[in-house]
Design a protein that fits this description.
The structure holds 2 protein chains of 2 kinds. Chain A is 73% helix and 0% strand. Chain A is mainly alpha-helical. The chains are: A mainly alpha, B mainly alpha.
Chain lengths: 165, 100
């Protein structure tokens, strides 16, 4: 319990630091690297939460495929340097409103802290890739097939949007 | 075992940071990355509750969210690339040609 808590605290602090670093970064590539660090931290959280399959999927899909795509596009466009934000006069109300909304969300986080602790039941369930696969190909077979069609549609869409005509 | 609360609070913090970033940045790629951060925070909460109720379904939801996020990124980045090709800008405030 104690060792687990120390690991959780360290990784959570790194995750929050990386998220704030991404939010404040003036350079799109640095922001992408901060996001990779954040995703890796979330993968460690999945391991702590007894979800080894998702931890590996997180690393391969998010930090692997998705962030490589982001970095590729940032470098392709040559849009790494983000210019200092010049806010349009008619949009000046927007930033305080956004920060207000963020404060409201944080208030709700405080509410979750105030709730009595939800302790997990003592014995963890079987969340091995075998169990996940069994459920995926029986209960969730139809959504699985729909997801394959969705991926195909996304692939065709991406090719159509970016081809030379 | 760690309490589920801790993970939900962490997910809430990450979601709040992502939401404020998505609303304050005007660069399309930065907004997109902030949306990915929010999706990830929601996934973390789903896995935490899956452990809380000892159900595998939450983990499978996360699996499908990852699939949808991957296809969303592919199409979204293709859109950003094609907009950049015609306007050489990724600032969302420049895209007001459809404004009535």
């Amino acid at each position: 319990m104690q060792a687990e808590f120390i690991v959780f605290l360290a990784v959570a602090l790194v995750a929050i630091g990386a998220a704030i670093g991404m939010a404040l970064s003036r350079h799109a590539l640095y922001a992408a690297m901060f996001l990779v660090l954040n995703f890796a931290c979330v993968a460690v959280m999945y391991l702590l939460l007894n979800a080894p399959f998702l931890a590996v999927a997180q690393v391969t899909v998010y930090t692997g495929a998705i962030m490589v795509l982001f970095v590729f596009v940032i470098m392709l466009l040559g849009a790494e340097k983000l210019p200092a934000q010049e806010t349009r006069p008619e949009m000046r109300w927007q930033r305080p409103l956004a920060i207000g909304l963020g404060a409201f969300l944080l208030l709700q986080v405080g509410l979750a802290l105030a709730l009595p602790g939800m302790r997990a039941a003592p014995e963890p369930i079987d969340a091995s890739p075998l169990a996940i696969g069994m459920k995926l190909f029986t209960t969730y077979l139809f959504p699985f097939e729909v997801a394959s069609v969705l991926l195909l549609a996304a692939m065709v869409g991406a090719v159509t949007l970016t081809r030379k005509d | 075992m760690l309490e589920t609360n801790y993970f939900v609070v962490l997910a809430g913090l990450l979601f709040a940071i992502g939401a404020v970033t998505a609303l304050t940045r005007r660069n399309a790629i930065m907004m997109f990355m902030a949306i990915e951060l929010m999706l990830n925070a929601a996934n973390l909460a789903l896995v935490a509750f899956a452990r809380q109720w000892q159900q595998l379904d939450g983990q499978l939801f996360v699996f499908f969210v990852m699939t949808v996020a991957a296809s969303e990124v592919a199409v979204g980045l293709a859109l950003i690339v094609s907009i950049f090709k015609s306007r050489s800008s990724t600032d969302v405030d420049d895209l007001h040609s459809m404004k009535g």
